[in-house]
Amino acid sequence: MTGLLHTARLPLQDGDLLAAVDLGSNSFHMVVARYVLGQLRVVDRIKEPVRLAEGLDARGGLDPAVRERALECLARFGQRIRDIPPQRVRAIATNSVRRLSVPHAFLMPAESALGAAIEVVAGREEARLIYLGVAHAQPPKPGELRLVIDIGGGSTECIIGAGFEAIERESVQLGCVATTRRFFDDGKLSAKRWQEARAEVAAQFQQFAAAYRALGWTEELGTSGTIKAIGSICAELKLTKGAVSAEALPVVRDRLLQAAHIDQIDLPGLSDERRPVIAGGILVLEAAFEALGLQRMQVSKAAMREGVLYDMLDRGSSLDPRETAVEALMQRYGNDRAQASRVEATAMRLFDQVAKPWRLDADDRLMLSRAARLHELGLAIAHSKYHLHGAYVIEHSDIAGFSRQQQQFLAALVRVHRRTIPKAPFDALPDRLLAQVRRSTVLLRLAVLLHRAHEADPIPQLDAHAQDDALTVTLSGRWLEARPLLQADLAGEPEMVERIGVALRFETA
Fold it and tell me: Is residue 6 one of the residues assigned to a domain?
């Protein structure tokens, strides 16, 4: 579980296996696919109803029994993917893990059980991955917009996309498990309670419904176990042939409300496994139909896990969404591209000399490169403490393609690239990333200092030698003598980086 969660491009060959793991709020899923002639062929699927959302309390704690259930499931998944190289496994955690007050307390044993790193993604990134999976499973018509809705256990994602690109992405805190618990926690059902709950749920969709309807779409697709289950119920009741329609939903709802209690729900085609959470799912979908003016929704066979697989194929290539996102940030905040390029080139020059002894890989190189390009982002807000402004923007923005850990890593590098290093700058990061972020910090700080004067001329000599947590940098004595400000900056740097456990020494030649 080294590196930064597989940011480098996968060196795939025909026959290689890839695996995607989805730690959903209702169920955990795993799909294993074989890479053949540039395509993915699914060879195995595993699903377990962990119901992680059921174990969450109002303070972000997780019930010990649910936690153990989740870890046992991940251990079984881990057995299946044991022989697949870590760089070809990607595990994604969603709403319920996002809501944990101390995510590390769950993620550390979870990663050990699975044998792979687990990324926590924001709702809008989850939406992008969902759309990508649907788009590959059911290729869209050229030039047409489509609406995709996914009702998970803890959240619902709504996406408008064209081709393979998600144009609008929204995530609301409404899922089948969470909504059932919120409105029907005692299990009792009634038409009055339903109407009150629907009004409250519909208000969540109304926040973006007008903008979505103004943009429009020509096709509506639903994905996830909840919408698939509702489609099956509609088919069993002979209301549709598996789709969900505006006419069918009220019939399904009224049939559900014939039961006075969730345990008594009798809907044809509904599994015992889904019965405890179907009320919340139907409620959310009915509210979405009403707010968005939906008439008929086809059911997609794909979901986020398929999107994760296809996203892995694009990582590190020209199609990598993170490269587009970094470029968009630079453009939006007016970064000095010439300076960013100088700092990036020097950071890469240093990186390539110390990568092997410092056990830094291609993932770390890409992240350092991105930090170098974005290190001055905060200047658009104010020069004073611009490193703090830039770090805040990076950590709290929705940046396509990045997990929360990756954004925190990138934000940490930008936060400490200049001035004093705080005592605990990397607390938000998991322990497995601390060595990389500390060493990358030193390289970025040096690159920034060496280009503080914004000189266009190249640095004539820059040799770096690393061993354990020690770094020796050799510069041209004549070149350095002509730069007294740089000499002063470099003189104080060893003391600065000593705070993060790196012994830095300068030599001249």
Answer: no
The pLDDT tens digits of the residues spanning 188-211 come to 999 999 999 999 999 999 999 999
Q: Is residue 126 part of a domain?
A: no
Q: How far is CA 505 from the centre of its chain?
A: 38
Which residue's structure tokens are 């019930």? 63
The answer to whether residues 191 and 99 belong to one domain is no
From CA 45, how far away is CA 302, in angstroms rounded?
A: 12
- Residue 314 has what pLDDT? 79
Q: Which are the contacts of 358, defined by CB distance < 8 A and separation ≥ 6? A: 439, 466
Residues 6+ apart with CB under 8 A from 439: 354, 358, 360, 466, 502
> Is 176:156 a contact under the CB 8 Å cutoff?
no
- Please state the φ and ψ torsions of residue 146, each to the nearest 5 degrees: -135, 150
Instruction: Provide the sign of the torsion angle of the four alpha carbons 80, 81, 84, 88, taken in this order.
Output: positive
User: Are 99 and 175 found together in one domain?
Assistant: no
d(CA 463, CA 126): 42
Residue 99: exposure state from Cβ atoms within 10 A (0-12, 13-18, ≥19): buried
Compute the chain's Rg from CA coordinates: 25
pTM of the model: 0.90
Q: What is the CATH number of the domain that holds 48?
A: 3.30.420.40
Q: Within 10 Å of residue 397's Cβ, how many Cβ atoms?
A: 15
Total number of domains constituting the chain: 3
- Residue located via tokens 């200049």: 418
Q: Assess if residue 128 is contained within a domain.
A: no
Instruction: Give the range of the structural domain holding residue 448, as residue numbers without chain letter.
Output: 320-508
Give the C-alpha separation, 264 to 257, whole Å: 10
